[in-house]
Structure formats: C-alpha cells, structure tokens
TrEMBL record:
GO biological process, one term: purine nucleobase metabolic process
Domain Allantoicase: 20-169, 189-324
Family: Belongs to the allantoicase family.
Keywords carried by this UniProt record: Hydrolase, Purine metabolism
Protein name in UniProt: Probable allantoicase
Pfam families in UniProt: Allantoicase
Catalytic activity: allantoate + H2O = (S)-ureidoglycolate + urea
A molecular function GO annotation: allantoicase activity
Family annotation (NCBIfam families): allantoicase
Organism expressing this protein natively: Marinactinospora thermotolerans DSM 45154
Length: 384
C-alpha cells in the first residue's frame, strides 16, 4: 500500500515516549540528549539559553565529527507495528543539522541488549536522503513488515529535534492472555502490604493508573550497601490466576534493578507467614533499563498476594499482574462492594438494575450479604 505524505500522518506515532517508546542508544549525545527525539511535545527554542556545553537545544545533537563515519540512535517503538512513514524534524537546527539521514528498522524477540541491537541486521526503510534545516522532513515508507525498533542515522553529524514514526500497531498475540484484569492495580482494589525500602518514593506508585512521565512517578529505593535485596508485597484485588506480568523500568536509566523475581501465595488455603506457602510466578530474570518488560506466566496458580523482589536494589515505574479472578475471588469482590455501598447508592443501583421500590428495600434490609448469591441476580447479571 502506498500512502502520500499527508495520508501517513493520520497514523499514530509508534515511537512516542508517552506510548512507552524509548531511545535505547546513541553513539554520541555530546550537546543534546537523545531522549528528546521522542518527546510528545513540539520542539522549543530559547535563543538566550546556553549551558556549559554550549547552546541548549530541544533535540538530539552530536559533536562536530572530525573523522569519517556517522552518528546514530536506536529507538524502541512503544507500540511495534507496520511503519507507513517517518518525519525527521530538524526544527531550530539551522546551521547544525545533518546534510543527510537514513532510517532502518528491525524486529526483535524479547528485550535485546545494546550490544545485540548494534550487532543485528537492519532493513533500510528510508535510504540515505538529503534533509533541510529547521524543517519537518517527511518520508513515506512502503515496507509492510512489523518492526520493534528503528535506527536513525545522521550523515555525518549534527542535530535533529524529533523523530516521528507513523504506522499501525500490531500486537503480539502471545501476550493476549485469557483474562484481562490487572489484579494488582490500585483502581481495581490492589494494595501494597509491605516494602523493604521507600526512601525516594512510595511503592504504591507501582500500581497507579497509566504510564509514568518521570522517574519520580515510580518506586525508587535507596542504594543498598549490604548483601540483601529490596522487595514489595501486594494484596491482589481478589483471588485469581496471574497470566501476564509487566515490570516497567521506564525512566530508570541508571538505577533500574539488575534482575527481578515474582512469587505468589494463596492465603485462603495457606499461611503467608510460612515461606513454604509461596510459589514462583516468575523466575529470577534480568531486567533492562527504561523498558516495559512483559512476561507470560508459564504455570498460573490461584493467588491472593504477590511479592516482587528486585536484585539488589533499584526502582521500577509500574508493576502489572494481568489475569482472571477465580470464582471465590469474584464472589468476595462482589460481596465487599455490595456491603460497602452507601444505602442511597445501593438503592439507586438496584433500581437501575430493574428492581421495584419494595424489592430494593427488601434487599437493603438483608444487608450485610453473607454470600454472593444473596445479592439480587438483577444486579450481578446472574453471575452467581
């Protein structure tokens, strides 16, 4: 499919930082940081703003190259997919933009290291092409394959304000596990029940809604100086089977954990105080900085609690535990909700579900409900 310049701009920018994209490597960022490339905002400029390195630019800028070669940056897409077009925006770079650029793409399994990325084979999606300074340079892409990373190259050096990678996201079906409820999410009823260290920020941030915008919106512990490790323990929204874990180290560039492990416990059948009651949900696994890691759970088991261990220390942005409530967990959640509602709200909910005034009053009089099937079926949709 061939798209015009204006047509491909309708598609979302798959590289956006706000979508989970990250600039995972640049061979040089002497004047301006590589992370600026995927900011969601338009580039800014202040002609009076100088730092100890020189003029401050809202973009990625390398030193003046005195030897043959070129400079490059690698971007991990926040949403892998088919790329329909690229915009290389040199806004405010008027005398220091690169004369030419090229863009390549590649698809990777899992979470490749920088060494693996630089050693990989890449496919050219934008051949070496001239660009203008202080201009949004637009390139249509006709490749129909799904990619996870792009590599932007400047020939030979200079500055680029933004890189936009417009396309269609294609999800990995292996990650579409049955049951789509985040069992640990704060808004679903999950909570933190213990933490080894919260020196810089609260572990409750781990289960907050949405993606983080800064490192300060995650959980960061102090630097550990002993042989132990840091951890957080969570109470799930209800008993359920966790089938997909997400350990997000976004914005933790130099203080992410080296590795992590997740264990679980079902306190309805065993004592959490007994170490033998805990089972492995995710084996100890190495983590990368500034990365949303997703792991399919190999052997889902009912759990009411999870424990996240990080080795030896370091922070995370978010922790997700996606799965499905068990029958017992679903019943307990309904009971807690129905018994906790203010009388006026429960009456309104019963009326909205179709109960008459007398029927609603009769249900209200029977509170607290002792089991889920005592809640009017009209309200629960006949789930019990």
């Amino acid at each position: 499919m061939s798209l015009s310049d204006q047509e491909f701009l309708r598609y979302p920018d798959l590289a956006l930082r706000s979508f989970g994209g990250a600039v995972v490597y640049a061979n040089d960022e002497s004047f301006a940081e590589r992370e600026n490339l995927i900011k969601p905002t338009a580039p800014l400029f202040d002609e009076t703003d100088f730092g100890h390195k020189g003029k401050v630019y809202d973009g990625w800028e390398t030193r003046r190259r005195r030897t043959p070669g070129h400079d490059w940056a690698i971007v991990r897409l926040g949403a892998p997919g088919v790329i329909h077009g690229v915009v290389v925006d040199t806004a405010w770079f008027k005398g220091n933009y690169p004369p030419e650029v090229s863009v390549e793409a590649a698809g990777f399994e899992g979470y490749p290291t920088v060494e693996e990325l630089n050693a990989a084979e890449w496919t050219t999606i934008v051949p070496r092409s001239p660009v203008q300074g202080h201009h949004a340079n637009v390139f249509t892409v006709t490749d129909d394959r799904r990619y996870t990373h792009v590599r932007l190259t400047m020939h030979p050096d200079g500055g680029i304000a933004r890189l936009r990678v417009h396309g269609e996201a294609i999800t990995d079906p292996r990650l579409l596990v049955a049951g789509g409820l985040d069992l640990v999410a704060l808004e679903n009823g999950g909570r933190v029940t213990g933490c080894s260290n919260e020196f810089y920020s609260s572990p409750t941030n781990l289960i907050a809604p949405g993606l983080t915008r800064t490192m300060g919106e995650g959980w960061e512990n102090a630097r550990r100086r002993d042989d132990g490790n840091d951890w957080v323990e969570f109470q799930l929204a209800g008993c359920g089977e966790v089938r997909l874990l997400e350990l997000d180290t976004s914005y933790f560039l130099f203080n992410a954990p080296g590795a992590a492990r997740v264990t679980g416990c079902d306190e309805t059948v065993s004592d959490p105080a007994d170490p033998d009651s805990w089972f492995t949900v995710l084996e100890r696994t190495e983590l990368l900085p500034d990365t949303r890691h997703r792991f399919v759970v190999a052997d889902p088991r009912p759990a009411t609690r999870l424990r996240l261990d990080v080795y030896p220390d370091g922070g995370l942005a978010r922790f997700r535990a996606v799965g499905e409530l068990s029958a017992e967990g679903r019943s307990a959640l309904w009971l807690r909700w129905a018994n906790a509602l203010p009388e006026a709200q429960l009456r309104a909910a019963l009326n909205a579900a179709g109960l008459t005034g007398d029927q609603a009053e009769q249900a209200l009089a029977s509170r607290p409900f002792d089991k889920a099937d005592a809640i009017p079926a009209e309200l629960t949709g006949g789930a019990f």
